[in-house]
Specification:
Number of helices: 11
Shape: globular
Largest sheet: none
Structural class: mainly alpha
Oligomer: single chain
Distance between the termini: 34 Å
Radius of gyration: 19 Å
C-alpha cells in the first residue's frame, strides 16, 4: 500500500482512541462540555499528531546508526545527516496526518480557520528539539543497545501524561508544573489553538521554546560528533 499507510495508521489509532475515550469512558473536554464525538476526535487528533512526531523519533533513533553500519566505514559520508533524515520522515508522517485533520475539520465544521498558517511556526521548535533527541539517542544507542527498550516505554508514557486525551484544566493544580515540563504539552496546546480554537500563537512562549530547543540540539550535536569517533570500533 506504500504511502497509504501514512494515512491509514493515524486514522485507525484515532478511531480506536475516540471510541474508547468518548464512547466507552464518555470523556468530555471540560466539566460542562457538550461537544460531539466528532469534535472530540478533532481535538484528540491534534494531540496524536504532535505525539506521533516525537514518538517516531524516539523509537527509531536508538538503532539508527547500527542499522546503517555500512555508512560508518565510509569516512566521507556525513553520519550526522542520518538523524535529520529520521526527523524528516517523522515530519512527513505528521504532515499527512495534518492533511487528514484539515480535511476532517472542513467536512465537520464547513471551514478552516486562517490561523492554520501558523502551524509550521509551532512545529519548528519541536522539529529542532527532536533533531537533538535523534542525535543524542542514535549516538548513545551504538554503545548502549538497551536504550531502545527505554525509549519505547517513554513514548508510551508521554502518550498518557501529555494533554492529549484531556485538557490541562482537568489536571489538579499541584500536578500542572510537572505537565508543563513535558516538551509536548506546550506544542499540543499551541497546535490546538491555531487549528481548532482559531487563536493566535503564544509568541513569547514559542520564542522561549525555540531558544531552549536550539541550545539543547546544539549540545546533542556536539555529543554526536564527539562519540562518532568510536562508532567503527564498537560496530
Amino acid at each position: 500500500m506504500g504511502l497509504c499507510w501514512s494515512f491509514v495508521h493515524p486514522l485507525l489509532m484515532l478511531a480506536v482512541y475516540t471510541f474508547v475515550f468518548s464512547v466507552v469512558f464518555e470523556a468530555k473536554w471540560g466539566a460542562t462540555d457538550d461537544r460531539s464525538n466528532a469534535d472530540f476526535a478533532l481535538i484528540l487528533f491534534v494531540g496524536l499528531i504532535v505525539h506521533g512526531l516525537l514518538a517516531e523519533v524516539l523509537n527509531q533513533s536508538p538503532g539508527l546508526i547500527t542499522r546503517n553500519s555500512n555508512y560508518v566505514k565510509k569516512v566521507v559520508f556525513p553520519l550526522e545527516i542520518l538523524p535529520i533524515v529520521n526527523v524528516g520522515t517523522a515530519l512527513f508522517h505528521a504532515g499527512t496526518g495534518l492533511i487528514v485533520l484539515l480535511l476532517a475539520h472542513l467536512a465537520i465544521k464547513g471551514e478552516i480557520s486562517w490561523t492554520v498558517i501558523f502551524i509550521p511556526v509551532i512545529i519548528l521548535p519541536l522539529a529542532i528539539l527532536t533533531s537533538g533527541i535523534s542525535w543524542l539517542l542514535s549516538s548513545t544507542g551504538v554503545f548502549v543497545r538497551d536504550i531502545g527498550q527505554a525509549t519505547s516505554i517513554i513514548a508510551m508514557v508521554l502518550l498518557f501524561v501529555s494533554p492529549i486525551f484531556f485538557p490541562i484544566s482537568a489536571i489538579p493544580e499541584s500536578f500542572r508544573p510537572l505537565i508543563a515540563l513535558n516538551p509536548l504539552s506546550f506544542i499540543i496546546e499551541e497546535a490546538r489553538a491555531v487549528l481548532i480554537w482559531e487563536q493566535l500563537p503564544n509568541w513569547k512562549g514559542l520564542a522561549t521554546y525555540l531558544v531552549a530547543s536550539c541550545a539543547f540540539s546544539w549540545l546533542c550535536f556536539v555529543w554526536f560528533q564527539k562519540t562518532r569517533k568510536g562508532f567503527s570500533d564498537v560496530l
